[in-house]
Amino acid sequence: MCVESESQSRDDGFPGVEKAYAFNLPNTSEYLLDTAVVHTELSWGGTCNFGEVYDRWPGRVAEIPGGPGRQEVLPDPQPGALRPKRCGEKYRGLEALFKPICDNLTAETLLALNKEVSVDGKKPRAVAEEWMRSEGFVN
After folding, report:
1. What is the pLDDT of residue 74?
2. How many CB atoms lie within 10 A of CB 118?
3. Strand pairing of 31-33 and 2-4?
4. What is the pLDDT of residue 10?
5. Whose CA, among 2, 55, 123, 133, lies 20 to 30 Å from 65?
6. Comparing C-alpha atoms, which of 73, 77, 63, 75 is closest to residue 14?
7. Are residues 121 and 97 part of one domain?
8. Are residues 97 and 70 part of one domain?
């Protein structure tokens, strides 16, 4: 079983899957890989016979079905703008500036934008600028 590095240590990652499905995979059966490498290893069929992947990456997992009785373990991505408290205190207009962007940046939109980068190979900045332009936030 191949597991992505971040997911291995998060309660809402592979440990959450083990808990939700009531099993415990022995460490000797688990291969720890870098982010997004699990997809490649699964397609090659070398190291991994099974793998933990995010079904929130459209285009990458289209051919990988969810198991029967699939549990919801991972939280849905919730877009938002994070900033240091002192920055928000100094620049009080930031929240009003980012609110319409965050309101339009739905989880479904994030998945589509992520696909453009991780599957279609577009540059993150180009994808973000194209989306911001299409939504009327920049000219």
Report:
1. 61
2. 17
3. parallel
4. 77
5. 123
6. 73
7. yes
8. no
Is pTM, for the whole model, over 0.70?
no
| Contact criterion met (CB below 8 Å) for 92 and 81 | no
Q: Please measure the distance between the N-terminal and C-terminal CA atoms of the chain and give it in whole angstroms.
A: 47
Q: Residue 134 in 3-state DSSP?
A: helix
Contacts of 99 (CB under 8 A, 6+ apart): none
Distance CA 92, CA 75 (A): 30
The identity of residue 117, as a single letter, is: V
pLDDT on residue 129: 96
Number of C-beta neighbours around residue 138 at 10 A: 11
Q: What is the predicted pLDDT for the residue at 64?
A: 46
Range of the domain at 23: 1-75
How far from 2 is each of 36, 72, 100, CA to CA, in Å? 11, 20, 39
- Residue 139 in any domain: the answer is no
How high is the mean pLDDT in each 10-residue block of the chain (139 residues)?
Answer: 80 80 83 76 75 58 48 62 77 86 85 82 93 94
The CATH number of the domain holding residue 25 is 3.40.190.120
CB 21 within 8 A of CB 57: no
Comparing CA positions, the residue from 135, 113, 126 lying closest to residue 58 is 113
